[in-house]
Structure prediction request, 890 residues.
Amino acid sequence: MRLALEKRDSKSRKMTILVPIVSLMLSFLLGAIVLGLNRANPVQTYIAMAKGAFGSQSKIQFTLVKAIPLLLCGLAVGIAFRLKFWNIGAEGQYVSGAIGITWVMQFWTFLPNWMFLPVGIVVGVLFGAIWGGIPGVLKAQWSVDETLATLMLNYIIIGYAEYLYINAWKAPRGNMGTVRYPEFAWLPRIWGRVHAGVFFALILVVVLWFVLYKTRWGFELNMIGKNQRAARCQGVSIKKNIILAMLISGGIAGLAGAIDSAAVTHQLTKGVDAGYGFTGIIIAWMSGLNPIASIFIALLMAALETGSDALQITLKLPAAMGEVLQGLILIPLLAGTVFTEYRLRILSKHKEISA
Amino acid sequence: MPASTSFRIVLTEDNHTTGYNMQEITPDDTPVVRMVGITKRFPGVLANDNVNLTLHRGEVLALLGENGAGKSTLMNMLVGLYRPDHGEIYIKGKLAEINSPQDSMALGIGMIHQEFMLVGNMTVAENIILGMKDLPFVPPMAEIKKNITELSKRYGLQVYPDKIVHDLSVGEQQRVEILKLLYRGAEILILDEPTAVLTPGEARDLNEIIKKMLQEGKSAIFITHKMDEVMEFSHTVQVLRRGKSVNVCPTSTIDRIQDLANMMVGRDILFSLDRGPYKPTEVMLEARNLVMECIAGGGKRILDDVSFTLRGGEILGIAGVAGNGQQQLTEALTGLMLVNSGQVLIHGKDYTNKTPLQIIKGGVSHIPADRGRMGVVGDMSVGDNLSMKKYRTKELSDHSIIKRSWVRLFADRLIETFTIKTPSQDTSVKFLSGGNIQKTILAREIDSCGGILIAVYPSRGLDVGATEAVRQNLIKQRDMGNAVFLVSEELEELLMVADRVAVMFEGRIMDSMDVKDAKTEELGMLMAGVERRDI
Prediction:
């Protein structure tokens, strides 16, 4: 018996929906194997994780609070990925945004009280945009590989942030972390721990969906991403759009950093590089770069994170289990996308069964 | 001047004398390949319907048919890329199970695809042995090179084993492909449109090579849709139409090329095109002393002092072997590449080194050379591809927002006007046939044309029907008073379509002339770089 892939005559809609769902189930199956190897009962573990993520109101709130920056980072990465610009620097752009808002909160004391938060968020967005714009310009002007550039810029800004909260901007008390933002400048909470950042994220989803699917610019991004040379022949400027898309991508990641700082940490300190930017890559990819689908994937990823935190307490399993599962989701998904354009045929000696 | 000018393909006696003497062939009794009752169905398409094919030792079989007739599908089953739904394949009389290219190679069958499967930055010798299974971990390169040289001498295939493949011309690369198959002991060669990329001289060489291989008892099948090649190269011709084999006969029994064409498309083909009188108007596109230098290669000129003028109501044909600067010239005209000096004037205004968008807005439409990579976005729908010029105009969008309902009406209108065959406007373009992809581009570019149409190899690789549609459309544009700049590697096409022809060689325009004064031989000499005064 042999297996063979055969090209479909059009993209399968059924598979586009089925593949992520099956991938998800497969990844839980793979996760079960990993858990089994660690002598943990997979069913028990998954139940504990579900309880940890959604078991009570406060747990749901924790999950939502994590979902906000994850969703924003997923949107940020998704914009760049539309152009096949592999921005894996959302993490750095997020940290850059956190630095931006902290700078305003700590040093722009000339501002009237009510202006701290809005100005801080705007500066955070700008910082993120700059950090995303640099690799954009490098790529557009000198064809510098964006994967390496964005990755390296992460380390630079994370290191710089560390210098700031341990050294230059350190609060007089304690051994790390900046001074807490004034309380009047915190982003208000709306339901328990859940803060107003959720509105930013949801409004952005709608705006991006509109821009990407309804406007001329969205059409241009689509053309560039799917065939850059053809887009250029049609008069679309590749350079301008790469830079623009990276400014926006970085800006959104910066917004995530600024919002999380203004609503959750209220300072710049250890743990600012929480990995939201990297998880954003998984979110963007799993959602098929669709902003609306990103909402659900971001929730799922947040649930995996809060759920696995609970594992540590209830089952004495390492919290890294959640990260293992996150990684495991991507593998069957990437492998599975082939089925949207190809079908599997099982070749036996005399008969063929198509799957 | 006559009111209607028409050109005909003239097959001179010459073409026949360079072919084989049919009497020499004495086919062996057991066919080397016998395909019986082959049926292959793809979703929605019956690609091959009960096709039989027989190939004898020492025979060249021409497989003729339009795009989508099922030629490539049939051959892909012979080399194991597809499996037939029904039917059997016998190789040298034995039932064969061909599941992969490895299986077919083991049976002595090798195929040269239209796009070469070579690794550009490796040497000829490395490419030839690449993927061979029974080699030692460290291949004995000296011995391999010796074998290659011997083999190439035997067949008159001049190839240097140490050369890097991307330094080779297309013709040389094809020789490497042939050698690759011979080195692996292929007895049956399948060539997919082998001459599409070759100069007339290289095509003649290929002819010689095939002749030598036949003498050694090898056989060949070649896929083509050029009828003069069938007459020149083959012993037997088999015609496929819509997946069915409609005719098999010895080539010598074909009297008129017209008969072949009719068999292929099932209707009479126009070999002359109706056109209005030649009434050139004002100059619309002008190039003055364009120079483009190679970025890497120390001042080597890709375009060397190129000047021409193109008027409304006129088709200027650019003849020349591919790779002599034609494509760079069109990219300079369309703003895709920058020139070092010289001027491009559109409707009298300076457009030198302007952006593609400015040039589009200046009224230039462009049918690019590589339709898959430059002409369409394969993963986007037919409707989207049709709107890729006009999406930025008021016709399809309101301020910055694209109006989907307008796009739908617009796309449906173009699909109908240009008879694009597609299941719907939502189908991804990449699922269409080559001819319909080209019609999609043609529709978009002609619809948005602001006076100047630049077409680069517009009929390359298209079947007779689609080629005719492309040419008719170009002539229609000219008759409407637009200026058409046509780059083609087929003289026959230029002589049929253009009003004036210019010949490019090594980045220069050798000469230009009115088509009615042009002689094929003279153009051929110019294409080979021989100055007019030397002729």
Observations:
- The domain at 1-19+28-108+187-272 of chain B is CATH 3.40.50.300 (Rossmann fold).
- The first helix of chain B runs from residue 13 to 17.
